[in-house]
Amino acid sequence: MSNHDHDHAGGPRSVPAGPSSCAEAATAKEAAYRIDYPLSAARNTRVVALDDEAERIIRSAALLDWGQARFFSITDPGEVLAEVGGSDLPLDEVMTDTNTVVMVATSGENATAVAAIGDLARERGIMTAGLVVTPGALTSDALFHLRPHARILLVPAEENDLIELLRATRA
Amino acid sequence: MLRTDINELLAQAGPGTPMGDLFRRYWQPVLLAEELPENDCPPVRVKVLSERLIAFRDSEGRYGLMDEFCAHRGVSLWFGRNEEGGLRCPYHGWKYDVTGQAVEVPSEPAASNFCANVKLKSYPMVKRGDVLFAYLGDPAAQPPLPEWEAYTVPDGQVFTSKRLQECNWLQALEGGIDSSHVTFLHGGNLESDPLFKGSKGNEYNKGDLKPFFEVVDSEGGLLIGARRNAEEGKYYWRVTPWVLPNFTMVPPRGDHPVHGHFWVPIDDDNCWAYSFDYHPTRQLTDAEVAAMRAGKGVHSANDASYRPLANKDNDYLMDRESQKRGENYSGIEGIALQDSSLQESMGPLVDRTKERLVATDAGIIKARQKLYKAVKALQDGVEPTGNRAKDQKVRSVAIVLPADQSFVEGIGEAMVAEPAKPHTSV
Description:
The complex is a heterodimer. By secondary structure, chain A is α/β, with parallel strands linked by helices. Chain A has helices spanning 22-25, 28-31, 52-62, 91-94, 111-124, 141-146, 161-168; strands at residues 45-49, 70-74, 80-83, 88-90, 100-105, 127-132, 152-155. Chain A contains seven helices and seven strands; from the N terminus they run ααβαβββαβαβαβα. A seven-stranded mixed sheet of chain A has the order 4-3-2-1-5-6-7, sandwiched between helices. The N and C termini of chain A lie far apart (53 Å). Chain B is α+β, with helices and mostly antiparallel strands.
């Protein structure tokens, strides 16, 4: 009998069996009994373009079908955002009732606006992600400005990384 | 979230599948060298990429990897006699050399050329360090021999173990890419495990439980940087390389050996974790090797078949008291089993249409995307990366950098493996 046949008190360890044992619960057969129900829309994402090229990228993504994702562009000083297909809205309002902001940058423009988003996100506990779409460049002003304010950065991101990220996170 | 068809495409690596075709562009670990320890030793069954094979080492020390079953009546050659330069089926005496070529068919007349036309499918297999790598793909597309640093250092500087993981390879790989789980699942082990404890980096880990991440695209795969606060406004970076399709490394801690893994598909429901520790500039100490053999660090204590002693049949020896005391966050002992117990609990192939990823899973999202693209590109005739020396000579890094410095810029050549070059560690 190996040591592993004993529990920590030194007594014999019983072999787990039945539906609650790991051995049975981890089978493909048991996977069929996982309960099936619609997932609630927990993600409420705001996608923000930080320059003109980034705006082109998010406009293209905005044409697809999303849950609650909304798409905006912003310029310094970052007090107002323009919603794709919509009107201008104050940053404070855009950052209300959201839990994720995805910032897209292709250049180092509008650093003040990035900081404004980042500061408000930090204050309100909003997750921040940044896509640095600078093909072939591992360092850039866009990365430099986003780094303090994005909890996760993709460097260099490809254009369709935005769609992949939004799809994977059920935006 | 991942569509069912893409989930299955990425997860299934059997012959003729798209991901199977991709895997068959790489040398993959298939055995530890200790499993074929001497000439004419017993043959070993190998199941890899959903193919049943037999491995043996002939009288001249040559390694063979071929179809497990005798061409005559389909008998398993595991029962074979490994003798005089070949593996002989015990049923009727048919004998094969390491290329799978039949060299004797005793029932045929002495002058018969019958056996010249009998050949079992076979694959090249080479020893690198303490691991045997095989290539199961098209011979015309065979890449150069593996150049992973762990397997080019001098003898005594590397230790590899393997363990059975009873779930699909992709679940295991994603655990290797996902740096954000370390703080929780393995947090209790940083200062207790002999292969982790005592480094300055551990203090940074414990002092900043909400790291920032940067996922950097590289030619061979990804570099995943986890950033934590250090002193004087500096950042502590831990950089994890992933190289296509199934190689990951763990960033180093102090002068401890460096760890990493290959996540090798056995079939659609199981994989091998080949886990290594190596040191680029010195021999592993007896104490380090003893700890590795005992299942510390990224290794596990296994039975003779390389199945962990703590496994799903004994509920991984779950210890709720240890969990309560905070010694082991999940109640499971050992980093390797902490990972595999959770990954196996997802089921053999997790339904990724139900998952709810978050932004910090971007490394996983990007890796899936790169795998998918590599599969599609190969279908269009574009050869993948990750199987060339320049992709494989990569290191994990732990480093403190100024806040305004990109980690890629800051680590520079520290990511590049070179003989006897000290690794960059904190």
